[in-house]
Amino acid sequence: MRTVQIIKGKLLYFCLFLLSSNCLAAEGMPQFNAKSFNSQLFWLIITFAVLYLTVTYFILPRIRENIRLRKNKIANDLERAENIKAEIDNMISESNIKLEKAKNQAQQIIKETILRSNKEYENQI
Questions:
Q1: Are 70 and 78 in contact (CB under 8 A)?
Q2: Residue 85, in any domain of the structure
Q3: Looking at the 3D structure of the chain, how many domains does it have?
Q4: How far apart are CA 105 and CA 111, in angstroms?
Q5: What radius of gyration, in Å, describes the C-alpha atoms of the chain?
Q6: Which tens digit of pLDDT belongs to each residue from 27-45?
Q7: For residue 95, is it within any domain?
Q8: How far apart are CA 57 and CA 55, in angstroms?
Q9: Could you report the per-residue pLDDT of 69-78, keeping only the tens digit for each?
Q10: In a domain, 107, yes or no
Q11: Which of 89, 103, 111, 124 has the lowest tally of Cβ within 10 angstroms?
């Protein structure tokens, strides 16, 4: 509570200091002085012209180039990903075909083995 009163007191002294006649200029604020409008307008135009030219010819071309490079990189990455996906699909289909062939061969070997064992069993009987 005591610190709040101290802060209020300092703020009051600061406001009184700002309102004192020693702090303010005799003519008022220079931004509103009609004698300096022309020079202020001149420097405003110069400043914004330099800022506009800097942004237009130095900053924006770099940003556009970066955006173009990023779009190209993304397009290339997507194309490469599609190619890799197609290769993976081909590999999967080839492995499925080989797996089916292996299953068929195993079934064929099992059938032949059963037939051979049945013939041997009948021969022994």
A1: no
A2: yes
A3: 1
A4: 10
A5: 44
A6: 667 667 777 788 888 999 9
A7: yes
A8: 6
A9: 999 999 999 9
A10: no
A11: 124
pLDDT tens per residue, range 60-100: 999 999 999 999 999 999 999 999 999 999 999 999 999 99
State the pLDDT at residue 36.
78
> In angstroms, what CA-CA distances link 34 with 12, 21, 38, 46?
33, 22, 8, 20
Give the residue numbers spanning the domain of 61. 38-99
Q: What is the residue whose two structure tokens read 């330099």?
A: 50
**What is the rounded distance in angstroms from the CA atom of residue 4 to the CA atom of residue 14?**
15
Q: Give how far the C-alpha of residue 90 lies from the chain's centroid of Cα atoms, to the nearest Å.
A: 33
In a domain, 81, yes or no: yes
C-alpha–C-alpha distance, residues 11 and 74, integer Å: 57
125 token code pair: 């009987």
CA 12 to chain centre: 49
Cα 18 to Cα 13, 21, 31, 33, 72, distances in angstroms: 9, 8, 18, 20, 59
